[in-house]
């Protein structure tokens, strides 16, 4: 199937809808519902947990369990302080980038729905050249058009409301997908596509497959930490995004060289189980799926770590989708990489046998 296109009109329509829906960290459930609706025809049952992680399960009675995982949350802001003249100061909910905030529109999530706002910024005319201040957490602010704090409160905005960007899915030059929150809506999308392909190609797996969309990755892998204890998997193949390091001002000597369009990125790190990773590489080579390599010092910083270091150790590996401009509103990935990550996870699953331990000592 290496030559066949994977993404269909229907799957891309879902990807667009799923991306355009805001699912800030801690508030993922509407996105999870969209995702479960799409996944439903391809799985036997679902597991959900108290904090909103969702898992589609194929062969729920099987003893041996394999997870494929992405995370469902997106970075956002919290309203932290409201000034007397009605401006909002924010704190991060995940790694939101202060440098890109000025001049952006925002949606403030309230009980009554979205309230629109803008990140204001002093005009160029009013700033002094040499002493110009860059945007920082303590000087960026949101203006919702209110004259004072009282009006802010009347509009339903209070401390603790979350704020997301409204930017929606677009395609750049035919094959680049651009949106906020491709980190990691793409992950949830790709694992759902794996389930669709298994179903459409009538593949029967000899183990239980747990298609897992975890919450709260952006603030420290928390959703994965919870759901791995519920599932107690034997194997976890995680997918997240990694950096394209070929755009300006990124130092390859420290960041390595990975780029969009050159294939899935396979990680080397202590949390990555070597035999499982070699199985993925052998699969890529056998199926002629292009791939790149990346090394991580200490932790991978992805849900891979949460799965690996749980339940006495779970054989885990990481397949990443290279992405430009992470944590901005114009995150960019290549369509071919999206298809090749799907392909690589799919083909790897077909190469895992029931009961495999991946032990170094067998
Ligand atoms: Zn992220």
TrEMBL record:
SUPFAM superfamilies according to UniProt: Aminopeptidase/glucanase lid domain, Zn-dependent exopeptidases
Taxonomic superkingdom: Bacteria
InterPro entries found in the cross-reference section: Peptidase_M42 (IPR008007), Peptidase_M42_aminopept (IPR051464), Peptidase_M42_dom2 (IPR023367)
Residues annotated for Zn(2+) 2 binding in this entry: 183, 218, 327
Residues binding Zn(2+) 1, per UniProt: 71, 183, 240
Cofactor-binding details, from the entry: Binds 2 divalent metal cations per subunit.
Active site: 217 (proton acceptor)
Any one Gene Ontology molecular-function term assigned to this protein's record: aminopeptidase activity
GO biological process: proteolysis
Keywords from the UniProt entry: Aminopeptidase, Hydrolase, Metal-binding, Protease
Keyword Protein biosynthesis part of the UniProt annotation: no
CDD domains: M42_Frv
Swiss-Prot/TrEMBL cofactor(s): a divalent metal cation
Family of the protein in this entry: Belongs to the peptidase M42 family.
Name of this protein: M42 family metallopeptidase
